[in-house]
Write a structure and sequence with these properties.
Elements (H helix, E strand, L loop, with lengths): L10 H6 L14 E2 L9 E4 L21 H4 L9 H10 L7 E5 L7 E3 L2 H29 L13 E10 L2 E13 L5 H12 L8 H15 L1 E2 L9 H7 L1 E2 L1 H14 L4 E9 L3 E10 L5 E4 L1 H4 L10 E3 L4 E3 L2 E2 H4 E3 L31 E8 L3 E2 L3 E2 L4 E2 L7 E9 L6 E8 L2 E2 L3 E2 L3 E3 L7 E9 H6 E9 L3 E2 L3 E2 L4 E4 L5 E10 L12 E3 L3 E8 L3 E2 L3 E2 L4 E2 L7 E9 L7 E7 L3 E2 L3 E2 L3 E3 L7 E8 L1 H6 E9 L3 E2 L3 E2 L3 E3 L7 E10 L1
Helix pairs in contact: 3-4, 6-8, 7-8
Length: 645
């Protein structure tokens, strides 16, 4: 057994530093004068983002971990704004270069004094850095295949224009950018991707596949410090050398490719002393999470299994439990912005030959005024009927899996579809009195190849709806009807449905609502679906607008921006945020509106403007300009509607 040595990431020096945040320094030092597409704007560079994990020698008790909050990825723990930025970055490429980000809200501000201006500007920088740091933290741990991204060198920036008028200082944000810098060449990235395409793990169940991945890394990788690429999965998978971060991220990447839920865990570990470390949690067929530390199992000529699929109470060395020598830390980059939550680690070790019923599906319902009900399986009713109780959350998992794969499900709740979760995680909410209205359930991996998952729901005023299968919607949407009970069954692929498949899903319609801010009037009442918002025949300018969706049961948003007198085009905003300016006496001159996601695939947004000296213009759609620019003409009124494609 070779003696274990430890390597501290170079990124740690960036994290620890002086402890003084960059935004506390002289702000003007980061302002760069350069040509931009927006005339009259300057560009400001944000604070350098951090990577890696921090050293933490405190031996505190591990914080409580809640699978309900964590899900299977760290994306689910971000704010709505952070998730929208994350969604734009998760598909970046090595050759991406500088990209413009669509920010969910307008960050422009005004101030009455230089002191207030500097304070708000510092708050803006801090908020931007917090958002970007949290996004990069989650993204880098969810997607180890982005190992090539040079996080400290990939700067974010924004263009701005400072103006002063009538004693006020205005700070208008133009565009926000992220400059993607790669630490690997495109050829290196392609070479590794090609290698992984030919790397297959063919176990008959999840345990066997996880073991094959564990053994492959133990047999092909050498723990070695001082080499290139050892902190990334590239070093483990291409060069055959790595330290803990390279081992752990390579393990997660291979599990991801095999369809096995896995997360990276960062923190401190101790043998003789406490040091920074990275390991993994894996979710097995029983829906529980177990620890794997490939680094500590790679100790000789043959793989060790001391740290393979073990629990928090598993004794690993002497009398010390795993949870005592592996202390998780949720602040990935050590800057103090966010403590990510890990899945709850099972207490006991996982054993391959657990005694479970044959291929089954089990589920538990959280019902109104009852809480979590007893788990049922294989088509037995979960929930209540005839009592008027709403289903508020659901957990589903597979039992006795002899085939690799998983189960995923999503709930329609509070006017929108939630993200898919899987394998025993909570979908829905508890303690908020919010009703589920519809469900989608699907299998993954080889389970999906050999089985169909059928399900039906009992809906308020409709009773039992028809059976549906494999990710289709079941229930009601945009009808304000509660889901009261669920039945779920597995059927051999192509087999007969358990019953009638007539009308499993009933839907209302999505509509648009909007409110105009009008000269001498202020905010008007909300209008709907093609109604006029603003005024005509009164020579009053529109100054701002808010637009939102009603019953948005499809994924996506409505985004819009306005062209304002003396300011030009504002940044895109979405979902009820204000676009334009109020209290400044500036006219709105044009507007552009667009849909995103599934909304854009199924609907067009159609709109027109009533313009000074012109009247009603022709209808335009999907991001086209309504109004004028460069003619100093005010928009007086708008009409907006959605049309099915």
């Amino acid at each position: 057994m070779r003696k274990r040595r430890w390597f501290v990431l170079l990124g740690m020096s960036l994290m620890l530093g002086t402890g003084i945040p960059a935004y506390a320094k002289t702000v003007d030092a980061t302002v760069v004068e350069q040509s931009t597409k927006e005339e009259g704007y300057k560009e400001e560079i944000g604070e350098t983002l951090k990577e890696g994990f921090r050293q933490n020698t405190k031996r505190d008790e591990v914080a409580p971990l809640y699978l309900e909050a964590a899900g299977v990825n760290y994306y689910s723990q971000l704010t709505k704004t952070e998730r929208q930025v994350y969604d734009q970055l998760k598909d970046i490429t090595v050759s991406q270069g500088k990209m413009e980000l669509v920010w969910p809200e307008d960050l422009s501000f005004s101030a009455d004094s230089e002191q207030e201006f500097e304070q708000k500007r510092e708050e803006l920088r801090n908020e931007l850095n917090k958002t970007m740091q949290n996004v990069i933290d989650a993204l880098s741990k969810d997607y180890p295949e982005l190992y090539w991204l040079d996080i400290p060198e990939s700067k974010y920036s924004w263009t701005y224009r400072r103006t002063e008028e009538s004693g006020k200082i205005y700070y208008n944000i133009g565009s926000i950018y992220y400059d993607v810098v790669a630490r690997y060449t495109e050829e290196e990235v392609t070479s590794l991707n090609n290698k992984l395409e030919n790397l297959k793990f063919e176990g008959n169940n999840r345990y066997q596949i996880v073991k094959e991945i564990h053994d492959y890394l133990c047999e092909t990788v050498v723990y070695k410090e001082g080499e290139d690429h050892i902190n990334e999965p590239y070093g483990a998978l291409m060069d055959g050398v790595a330290v803990c971060e390279g081992y752990g991220e390579a393990f997660k990447w291979l599990c991801d490719r095999a369809g096995i839920p896995c997360v990276c865990v960062v923190g401190t570990a101790s043998q003789e002393e406490s040091v920074p470390h990275l390991w993994n949690y894996v979710q097995m067929e029983d829906g529980k999470w177990y620890a794997v530390d490939v680094t500590w199992d790679d100790v000789g000529n043959e793989p060790s299994y001391t740290y393979f699929l073990i629990g928090g109470n598993t004794v690993t060395s002497g009398k010390e439990k795993f949870s005592e020598n592996h202390i998780s830390v949720g602040d990935f980059s050590g800057v103090g912005y966010k403590e990510f939550i890990y899945p709850e680690l099972n207490n006991e070790k996982y054993y391959e030959n657990s005694e479970l019923p044959d291929n089954s599906i089990s589920y538990s319902i959280h019902a109104q005024n009852i809480g979590w009900m007893d788990e049922v399986s294989n088509g037995v009713k979960g929930g209540t009927t005839g009592q008027g109780r709403q289903v508020e959350a659901i957990k589903i998992h597979l039992t006795n899996q002899r085939i690799n794969g998983g189960i995923e499900y999503a709930s329609y709740i509070d006017g929108k579809w939630q993200n898919f979760v899987g394998n025993g995680a909570v979908s829905g909410t508890t303690g908020k009195s919010l009703r589920l209205e519809a469900l989608k359930i699907r299998l993954t991996g080889k389970m999906d190849e050999q089985f169909d998952v059928y399900y039906r729901v009992h809906a308020q005023d409709y009773g039992w709806l028809g059976w549906t299968l494999n990710g289709a919607e079941a229930g009601t949407v945009a009808m304000n009807k509660r889901l009261e009970a669920v039945e779920i069954r597995l059927v051999q692929k192509g087999g007969e449905a358990p019953g009638s498949t007539e009308r499993p899903f009933i839907t209302g319609t999505i509509s648009v609502t909007y409110s105009a801010h009008v000269q001498n009037i202020g905010w008007q009442d909300w209008e709907f679906d093609g109604e006029k918002s603003g005024t005509t025949g009164k020579n009053l300018r529109m100054e701002a607008i808010k637009i939102s969706l009603v019953n948005p049961f499809l994924d996506g948003s409505i985004e819009y921006r306005t062209h304002i007198q003396n300011t030009g085009w504002n940044s895109w905003v979405a979902d009820g945020k204000t676009s334009g300016q109020t209290g400044k006496g500036l006219r709105m001159e044009a507007i552009e509106i667009r849909l995103t996601g599934e909304l854009a695939e199924q609907y067009d947004v159609v709109y027109r403007a009533h313009v000074q000296n012109i009247g009603w213009q022709d209808w335009v759609s999907n991001g086209e300009k309504a109004g004028t620019s460069g003619q100093s003409l005010r928009v007086e009124s708008v009409q907006i509607r959605l049309e099915k494609k």
